[in-house]
């Protein structure tokens, strides 16, 4: 490597504020640069004021619990234990990210180090870049950054950025290795660095040799694919590499996984035709005002422009116009400091611009208040004519979002015609979907010589009755209730007893929307289908 030059040195102190702020920056890159190095820090990285932290966490927990009233009654202390928020009582993270654009305005990626105070340097080059950034030639011209100061809690924090340019040495040339291979090497190194795993020169990148600790029992039916719709890797704030996460998904019994790293699609370069599960290209458009997942994307869609000005609706519209499926992620997530920017502000979300909704976010035993609130929102939207398809998601970052014998996470089940990204996305678009923590369901209706299933409509002649047929199979004997819900209200229910299978029929003349729900005798949601409409 040749000479090193400093292209930018910037520092700014941010004061505490509820809503994040953006700061646009520029720097000039001369000819002949082979590699850019980005050094970012935020000091302090954490607020360690116990009095301030406890007050803020308790307030967030209280607001979170109120979402479930009157269905469920929880105290703030119960929420803190349930959500595992105890560590926030002693340390609340200050959050800052940095986006990078080349001279053409192309989005290169986003710096999102887990430890903002002691972050390793990131780098950009043609042969490979750090996680969160795509491999890119270092073109001469004006490059642009946007600093995203997400959350500065209680006291001031100082951000600093240094950009270093590395010139090619005499006679050196930029390596032309395949981009995906170069990126994979870079990201394995960065993943190891994040875990504190050093390596000597010439050694292969360190790889974790972990196995899934518990594989939940699930029923399996032909034509029904099970998958995870919301996941993160080392390309944003997850702990797994792309290939490692695919292996773990397979070990958990899944058929597909959607990669939705925060504001980057750099992980897509590491998709493999030999992966043990189908990999769906996605992104989580993470904003100050809510999170939105797009599925089937070919590029990253930015929620702010190069000047840091918000353009959320335009970005969603662009993704949809390009054929992506847009989803609202965890709309009733817990407030900061537990989750920054995760929930939505009432009255500000353009629901009609989306196709999917995370109705079931996370495990019931961990996130029941927001699941209760989002299920009610979903019913209100359908009553107003906004037919969002329900999906389940665990928001997978690490082992904490993996099943245990006591805590089961939901998956999204799609009735797909083929085991491909296109086939899975087509089933999602059509609404042939149900969410489940293990059971399987078949819901159908027939009348007047016609029939329909989940996600479909049955046009019923005026003289005819609709015959609804329900079949539920459980992976283990469970006592509980199977409900047919009509227009948001329970129409009929059957007790499972201590059984693993149940079938029944119901005749009805009522027009409207029907779905099936399965609840355990302990009041835990086990299954929820999309609607079947009778009109």
Set out the fold topology:
Layout: E1 4-14, E2 21-29, E3 33-43, E4 46-47, H1 50-66, H2 76-83, E5 92-93, E6 95-101, E7 107-111, E8 122-125, E9 141-151, E10 157-167, H3 179-194, E11 224-228, H4 242-251, E12 256-259, E13 278-287, E14 290-295, H5 312-321, E15 325-328, E16 356-361, H6 364-383, E17 389-393, E18 411-415, H7 421-430, E19 433-436, E20 440-447, E21 450-453, E22 457-458, E23 466-478, E24 480-486, E25 489-495, E26 499-508, E27 512-520, E28 525-529, E29 532-534
Parallel strand pairs: 11-12, 12-13, 15-16, 16-17, 22-29
Antiparallel strand pairs: 1-10, 2-9, 3-8, 3-10, 4-5, 6-7, 6-9, 11-18, 13-14, 14-15, 18-19, 19-28, 20-21, 20-23, 23-26, 24-25, 24-27, 27-28, 27-29
What does this structure look like?
The chain has 535 residues and is α+β, with helices and mostly antiparallel strands. The protein folds into four domains: 4-47 and 92-189, Jelly Rolls, CATH 2.60.120.380; 50-89, no CATH class; 216-434, TIM Barrel (Alpha-Beta Barrel), CATH 3.20.20; 439-535, Immunoglobulin-like, CATH 2.60.40. Helices cover 17% and strands 36% of the residues. It contains seven helices and 29 strands. The strands form five sheets. It has a 15-stranded mixed β-sheet that branches. It has a four-stranded antiparallel β-sheet with strand order 1-10-3-8, with no helix packed on it. Helix 4 (242-251) links the parallel strand 11 (224-228) and strand 12 (256-259). The termini are far apart.
